[in-house]
Amino acid sequence: MKTIAWALAALVAGSGLAQAQDVQAGFRTFLQNDIWPEARAAGVSRQTFDAAFDGVKANTKLPDLQLPGDKAKVEEVNRQAEFQSPTAYFDEAKMAATAAKGRAMLQQYAGPIKRIEARYGVPGPILVAVWGRESGYGAAKIPYDAFEVLGTKAYLARRKEMFRAELIAALQIVEDGDLTPQEMKSSWAGALGQPQFMPTKFRKLAVDFDGDGRRDIWNSVPDTLASIANYLRQSGWQPGRDWGYEASVPASVSCTLEGPDQGRPIADFAKAGVTRASGRAFPAGETRATGHLLMPAGRFGPAFIATPNFYVIKEYNNSDLYALFIGHLADRMGGAGPFSGDWRKVSGLTRGDVARLQEKLVARGYDVGRPDGLAGFKTRRSIGAVQEKAGQPATCWPTKELAASIR
Fold this sequence. Notes:
Blueprint: H1 2-41, H2 46-52, H3 86-89, H4 92-108, H5 110-120, H6 124-135, E1 144-145, H7 146-156, H8 160-175, E2 185-186, H9 199-205, H10 221-234, E3 244-248, E4 264-265, H11 266-271, E5 275-276, E6 290-294, E7 296-299, E8 303-306, H12 308-316, H13 320-333, H14 351-363, H15 377-389, H16 400-405
Antiparallel strand pairs: 1-2, 3-5, 3-8, 4-6, 6-8
């Protein structure tokens, strides 16, 4: 029996080794036959190409990969913090410490921040908040070889075409002389430098603000902050407007009214009974401007009236929690306190559970966006519509009970 067990173990090990070798061989073929012709057409020299991929192998330990022979699937568990529990994401102790550090950064870099604000019209606290969230004000390690990450994901990720474009852009960055291949360090997702720009965004939006002739978002704080400002301004930031306001939303205002496509004058929300959680009135200059109902945890968390600038922040990272974190952190740097509302814990669903719920909603004719397992505003308001149709109080949030009730 032991002999049989050893033989089976050896067979499994041998099979795994063969598969790994096949992946690496396929990766090299992919780079040569698929990526090199496209890179050459984009102006990348053979010298740059070979230097970028010297010694690089496919890293099959990266998340969100689909190995040869595997079926496409939604990840069962969320890996990005922005799509996990709001309770953990807005941990008060961490938020207070991050805000205190941010205030110190505002003082330390007050000179360049003032000049960046004047050029781009984006408030310094917003810029510093993005910097803090993306790289801990420059303290976070960015350890990965960008060509290993982007090459692997262009070959094996679920979103191959997106990463293929990013890989070509990364090669162009080296070809342009911005960085050497050895300097191209990224996150596990292929994002570069302190502001975590994808390569296409770096080429389009990175700024040399300190005037040294390099767009250095790895080591230069002025370049980093100005690049963030340029990103937000080019994405439509409206100077002079806030990002939004925490609000008290009565039950008479349906949570199905949420979303960037259902904007209305803030005065209309006020007439419907929506008030600021702080007790202050909405600024007079904002009442005629467009606002949007935002309930990122449905009725299980704080509510907000967001301005279009909130959705500009989402252009940086397409997560409601991320954009809310940036806005709230910026407010905290200015002396604001914690949220008035609580993030309540509800019966949890995995990302896979939410994806299956979304598929059920789509089958019923509801628009959830893409069934990706993420409870975005379209999914939330579709859930609310189902609940209202059934004569139930609308919570606009996926729960185990709701998932079990929808067949």
